[in-house]
Design a protein that fits this description.
Chain lengths: ~300, ~550
């Protein structure tokens, strides 16, 4: 399997801020790769380096076999990009912006363009300023997805979309995956990445802290369960992977490692489930849980260093 | 065009409790504006006051005796100079005061008008366009607080400049009395006030700050041209111009305060209309509503150049119309000058024949066109930077468009646009001047003079290009070069600057045209320098990170 994106040891500083701190990222051709991290972790900076909009201070970056800075124009013919914050020209209509961006990339597929406009339910005659955030995002999505390219780079593409449009987006990305195309999808929403991605890299403070298939990362995820049962639940604390268990009469609340979810729910059914809600953990919770100790230790070390 | 209507008379439902008026929050907003402009405002105020006060001590050096001053006065009292600077009052006994009024008042007034327009739009429509007004208006903030706060700050800046001038001018030049200097300050401040009102109103008309400023500056240009035509012949026209009112105070000669009352009344009217408009329209909307666009892009919108052209088209058309009208208007004044000189034999001894006077006048008009074309060139280059900071360059540069091609597309507009402007303005001027003088050779000479200024204009523009490439956040420093050229070009006759001060202005080499000789060497050097700066700028833009701040 060839590598579409290969980033090794990239450092990027802005003044005194170290936005990327020895970042490594590998995306194989044909995979949908989730790029997860909290706000300000360096996702957009990484993407801008990949697009040759920013120049890495050190480290190596290879994109589709080329150098994103030196070969920017040639590489950009083979990829499409949707920025996280889409800014459109106030006096251009959405349709004009789509055509312009498509043509500048080297042409767009007319059939796909029309199909996507229909599916995303986007009015192409409105002017840039009159679009809502979600509709601006749709303009950028249609422009990117109507192009015949090998690689799609999406920076939090669904942050302004409603659930209906998010479903359409997921469909379209699935179709891309079926065509064997590569997608790099940045997000801070774990469930979105879980739905779409083959592999995931998690970035924090400019460094990749975890990378692997979803199965490999399963240990990172916990699901919150809240249930009401016919009879008070007992014996749940004997099961593996149960955390923060609270039992109040007929109500029970706990977190469970996603790998152990099956066992926990089977156990609950024995007490007659009346209501059941499950909530995937937010990324922030995940980070707090998995890196909280580490963060605390770092802070303590920093404080110790400062006081000594 | 249609007028947006809001809910009927919202004032009736307002004020559920005490203090809720359409002006609620004005004081907070004023403090916020002062905080945002804590650098910008002192620069405007300081620059205007220092330039005026600093220039005064040179008067006695340049014109030491009464005879020197009278000789200068002889040069003023003719249609050519009147059209450029205004009616020459007090030329019988040409005091330093009369000199200050005749030679400086117009330029200070224009600068303050410009300041008022830019600041008003910056704090009203520009805020609304970005959506920040929406955020503020969702809080406890009256409907008219925004306009009121901006107007208060801008009016305050104008009054402060007026007062500082009134107090400082007498100390810089003993012959100027405090009372007359206060009137001078009040006169220039009155022009600033009227254009603060103009800015408040143009900010209501369009959704875009750029268009609002452009409209305001067009009104300023009209005010300048109206008084030029009025001062030369039909004086009634001068009474339609705020600059005309300020000049008709006859400050330092007759000291009349009453013309300023017209300015105050007009300002109040303009602000009242702006209020009324704000009450009737939606937040974010203009009086001119955006129409739906085309669902497909036209064939021309397929390249960075096509995009740049589309983005800058409106501005170029507006500037072009302005320069053509300016050229036509000033060219038509040529016959007044010719008649005036041929009727006046003593004047011919002082000034030479009508041809010399007309050539000198035309040279200054062509130079004004060149200054305007250079100003356009700078705005067009700044547009490139704005595309970058607004985040709109990013999606384009993420396609198969190189940095150089992207930047060059805007440069083609800046450089080609300024050439078109010079051709348009020059053609207008050449057409009416050659008709008015019945002199066909004037046509070619004026068009040639206009084109000869291009290397200088491109050099000024190229400074902005180099800044965008190397230190993008300092691109506005390029306005200093233009300001220098304005001061040197427009005030050289009066101040008698040393030769080298003149020579380093990019618009000096072609300034002797149409009467004199072109500084060919300087033109070639400027051309080479412009190319070098553009090359440096493009190289810098290719090598640096794309930034949004």
């Amino acid at each position: 399997m060839t590598t579409a994106i290969d980033v090794a040891g990239v450092v990027k500083t802005f003044g005194t801020v170290r936005a990327l701190d020895g970042l490594d990222l590998r995306v194989s051709t044909g995979e949908v790769h989730g790029f997860l991290g909290p706000n300000g972790a360096g996702k957009s900076t990484t993407i801008r380096v990949l697009l040759g909009l920013l120049r890495a201070d050190s480290g190596t970056v290879r994109l589709l076999g080329g150098d994103p800075w030196d070969d920017a124009v040639a590489l950009h013919r083979r990829l499409a990009y949707v920025p996280g914050d889409v800014n459109l020209w106030p006096n251009l209509s959405g349709g004009e912006a789509i055509d312009l961006l498509g043509r500048l990339r080297g042409g767009l597929d007319e059939k796909r363009r029309q199909d996507l406009l229909d599916r995303f339910d986007l009015d192409p005659t409105k002017k840039g300023r009159t679009y809502s955030k979600g509709n601006r995002q749709k303009v950028a999505l249609v422009a990117a997805l109507s192009s015949d390219v090998e690689l799609l780079i999406l920076d939090e593409p669904t942050s302004g979309l409603d659930p209906l449009m998010e479903a359409v987006f997921n469909e379209v990305i699935d179709e891309w995956k079926d065509d064997g195309k590569t997608v790099l999808l940045s997000s801070h929403i774990l469930s979105e990445v879980e739905k779409l991605c083959d592999r995931v890299s998690i970035i924090r403070a400019g460094t990749i802290v975890e990378s692997g298939t979803l199965a490999e990362l399963r240990h990172l995820t916990r699901t919150s369960i809240h249930a009401e049962t016919a009879r008070p639940v007992t014996g749940l604390d004997q099961l593996p992977g149960i955390h923060d268990l609270v039992v109040e009469d007929h109500r029970v609340t706990f977190d469970v490692d996603t790998a152990q979810l099956d066992g926990a729910v089977r156990h609950l059914t024995g007490f007659g489930i009346q209501t059941l809600t499950s909530q995937p953990p937010t990324l922030e919770e995940l980070f707090l849980r998995h890196y909280g100790d580490e963060l605390g230790a770092e802070q303590a070390a920093a404080e110790a260093g400062a006081s000594s | 065009m249609s007028v947006t209507t809001a809910q009927p008379s919202p004032r009736q439902h307002a004020a559920p409790r005490s203090g809720g008026t359409t002006l609620t929050g004005t004081v907070t907003l004023i403090r916020f504006i002062l905080r945002r402009d804590r650098v910008r405002l002192p620069i405007w105020i300081g620059a205007i006051v220092l330039l005026v006060v600093g220039s005064l001590p040179t008067f006695p050096e340049t014109y030491p005796t009464q005879a020197d001053r009278q000789a200068r006065a002889e040069l003023l009292d003719n249609p050519a100079t009147v059209a450029l600077t205004g009616p020459a009052y007090g030329t019988d006994d040409y005091t330093f005061g009369a000199m200050t009024a005749n030679e400086l008042l117009l330029w200070v007034a224009i600068t303050m008008g410009l300041m008022s327009i830019l600041l008003m739009v910056r704090h009203t429509r520009a805020e609304e366009e970005t959506g920040r007004t929406e955020l503020l208006r969702a809080g406890v903030l009256g409907r008219h607080a925004g306009t009121t706060a901006a107007f208060t700050v801008v009016a305050g800046a104008n009054v402060l400049i007026g007062l500082l001038l009134g107090v400082l001018m007498p100390s810089a030049l003993d012959e100027l009395s405090v009372s007359s200097s206060l009137l001078f300050g009040a006169a220039v401040a009155s022009v600033g006030l009227v254009f603060a009102g103009v800015g408040a109103l143009t900010a209501q008309v369009t959704e875009h700050a750029r268009a609002a400023s452009g409209l305001g500056v067009a009104v300023l240009g009209a005010a300048f041209s109206l008084r030029a035509i009025g001062d030369v012949g039909a004086e009634a026209l001068s009474w339609l111009s705020p600059i005309g009112w300020a000049q008709r105070t006859k400050v330092y000669v007759d000291d009349r305060w009453w013309p300023l009352l017209i300015a105050l009344a007009v300002t109040a009217l303009l602000v009242a209309v702006a209020y009324a408009t704000t009450s009737r329209r939606d937040v974010g909307a203009g009086l001119v509503q955006a129409r739906p666009g085309s669902p497909r892009a036209g064939a021309r919108l397929s390249s960075p150049l096509g995009l740049a052209l589309r983005l800058q088209r409106g501005g170029l058309i507006g500037w072009g119309a302005g320069l053509i009208v300016f050229g036509l208007a000033y060219g038509s004044l040529a016959s007044s000058i010719e008649e005036f000189v041929s009727d006046n034999s003593t004047l011919q001894d002082v000034l030479g024949d009508a041809g010399t006077l007309i050539d000198g006048f035309m040279a200054l008009v062509v130079q004004m066109l060149a200054l305007l074309a250079a100003a356009y060139g700078l705005t067009a280059v700044v547009r490139l930077r704005n595309e970058e900071t607004a985040g709109r360059a990013e999606p384009v540069l993420a396609t198969a468009v190189s940095r150089v091609r992207f930047a060059a597309s805007h440069l083609v507009i800046a450089m080609g646009g300024s050439l078109l402007l010079m051709l348009g303005g020059g053609l207008g001027l050449a057409l009416t001047a050659s008709l008015a003088l019945d002199d066909g050779s004037m046509f070619g000479k004026l068009l040639g003079a206009s084109v000869a200024h291009m290397p200088g204009i491109w050099l000024i523009t190229a400074v902005a290009v180099a800044l965008v490439g190397l230190v993008p956040h300092l691109v506005h420093l390029s306005w200093i070069v233009l300001t220098y050229a304005v001061i040197v070009g427009m005030l050289a006759g009066f101040f008698q600057f040393p030769d080298w001060v003149m020579k380093i202005s990019p618009l000096d080499a072609a300034s002797p045209l149409p009467g004199g000789d072109l500084g060919t060497v300087a033109v070639v050097i400027m051309g080479v320098l412009a190319v070098a700066l553009i090359w440096i700028g493009l190289l810098g833009f290719r090598r640096r990170d794309l930034t949004t701040t």
